[in-house]
Write a structure and sequence with these properties.
Two copies of one chain form a homodimer. The first copy, chain A, has 203 residues and is of the alpha/beta class. The first copy, chain A, is built from seven helices and nine strands. The longest helix of chain A is centred in the N-terminal third of the chain and has 21 residues, at 22-42. Chain A is globular. The A-B interface holds A 95-96, 99, 113, 115-117, 134-136, 138-139, 156-162, 168, 171-172, 175-176, 192, 194, 197-199 and B 95-96, 99, 113, 115-117, 134-136, 138-139, 156-162, 168, 171-172, 175-176, 192, 194, 197-199.
């Protein structure tokens, strides 16, 4: 399966600015990207990083650079069957991606919803489907599938739903992830904290 | 499968106080409970509501009252094979519960992680396992399973991970749920809003 992995190379993850420096945010987002690539390679998928600026990647990932909006850059390259997987899913594993691709076999479009209305993964096998990542994209992708007559299925996955944007999200990495992103956070001195029964992280 | 469904009857969901009155929070939490019971009945599970105070429930749910801490009340009634499912999972469906119980067949303990370190569902088939819901309970339940020599498996489910505690969580109900909880929110005038690309709710 060809997989586009969109990646924001410049000033990534600004909502983490209160806990990570600009240089650390770059390393952190790179770790998440590499975790996603590792998971995709492990199920013999063929990822291409769609980056907003040139980057070097460990391993053999192809990189294409396009600084237009995410939706424009993806739509310009949609060539079904094709998947689009966001780069900030450090909880995703090879098994998760296998479930995603299996669930897509009988559907024109398979989606993995993200928390907060996003669409963290798409598997498209319909010639007229187009992406629209602005706003509550999971709702818009359902509408677009309806409009072009494409059957849509959703995969029910916690690991594909948790994208990492805020300091609160970091606790999910420490609780559930195993890869480079978790290693990065542990090396940077992050640990779980519990106050008034609520779980958070501290450095 | 016998299923305990813990339910906080008095002053529920205080973190929703800024958007729902005390009376509405009672109705809202009752709607979530009834959605969970409907999903469990649909897969022929046998739920018992473990309530902190007497309540009347639509349908035939058994209710037992215990005002001790959640962990004490559950541990006192653990009689494997038995499940414990929290009452605030309005995204859960019959299909989700079927996956949960299927995943538990070959394990001593099956867990569905909740966002923020919780344990939203447990299926226990080991005589020595005990629950501990305080703090990062998913981590503690892994440790307890290790200590008593119980095999633990985790089900990867977005619908079982999203428990509803805060106003931000309500958007997940409007985006993904179908039952009484969604109807309650829509009747109360809630709708999705999108500002700066972020999804929220307004009334």
């Amino acid at each position: 399966m060809d997989v586009l992995v969109p990646f924001a190379a410049d000033d990534p993850k600004t909502r983490l600015s209160e806990v990570l420096s600009a240089a650390e945010r770059k390393q952190f987002s790179r770790s998440m990207l590499e975790d996603v690539l590792d998971g995709l390679w492990a199920v013999d998928a063929d990822p291409t990083v769609l980056s907003t600026a040139p980057i070097d990647i460990d391993g053999d990932a192809a990189v294409v650079v396009d600084d237009r909006s995410l939706s424009e850059a993806v739509n310009d390259r949609l060539d079904p069957p094709q998947a689009v997987v966001v780069a900030d899913l450090p909880l995703a594993t090879a098994e998760t991606f296998r479930r995603l691709f299996d669930s897509a076999v009988d559907a024109d479009v398979a989606v993995a919803p993200g928390l907060g209305g996003g669409t963290n993964c798409l598997v498209v096998d319909h010639p007229e489907f187009r992406v629209d990542y602005h706003g509550a994209s999971i709702r818009d992708h359902r509408t677009i599938a309806d409009e072009v007559g494409a059957d849509l299925t959703a995969i029910d996955s916690f690991r594909l739903a948790v994208d990492i944007d805020t300091p609160a999200d970091l606790s999910e990495v420490l609780l559930h992830a195993e890869g480079r992103t978790r290693e990065f956070l542990e090396a940077a001195g992050f640990e779980l904290t519990i106050r008034d029964g609520r779980v958070s992280v501290a450095r």
